[in-house]
Design brief:
The chain is an alpha+beta fold. The chain has a domain of about 80 residues: 2-Layer Sandwich (GMP Synthetase, Chain A, domain 3). The protein has 5 helices and 3 strands. About 15% of the residues are buried.
Length: about 120
């Protein structure tokens, strides 16, 4: 088979015939079948949180973390009261940004201060 037999978009037609799918597209369904949907949602929410904080509130990056995500409520823990206050003040903006990056429904952001 020569390179002339490859499809016009640069992909090998043999690969396209096998119906390959992206791993990222398969993970949510696999997690659901294995009973890991909650853990998968939490991991996705944590990743989205880190990205949003780095972009929107860089000073808080590394000083707060998403610790739980259940029934549309994201629970965030801040290291210092001032960080928690900043997150609470910016909650509407952060929720909007998170909703744009997540597939799971998100209705509330709960912020607490980490107790050592």
């Amino acid at each position: 088979m020569s390179s002339d037999d490859d499809s016009r978009d640069g992909r090998d037609s043999r690969t396209a015939d096998r119906g390959l799918e992206r791993l990222g597209d398969l993970l949510p369904d696999a997690a659901r079948r294995l009973g890991l949907e909650d853990q998968f949602e939490l991991a996705a929410a944590m990743s989205a949180w880190e990205k949003v904080i780095a972009e929107r509130v860089p000073a808080a990056s590394g000083s707060c973390r998403l610790v739980a995500f259940q029934q549309g409520v994201a629970s965030v823990e801040a290291d210092e009261p001032i960080v928690a206050q900043e997150l609470r003040l910016r909650a509407p903006e952060l929720l909007t940004a998170l909703r744009a990056t997540m597939t799971a429904p998100l209705r509330q952001l709960r912020v607490s201060v980490r107790h050592v």
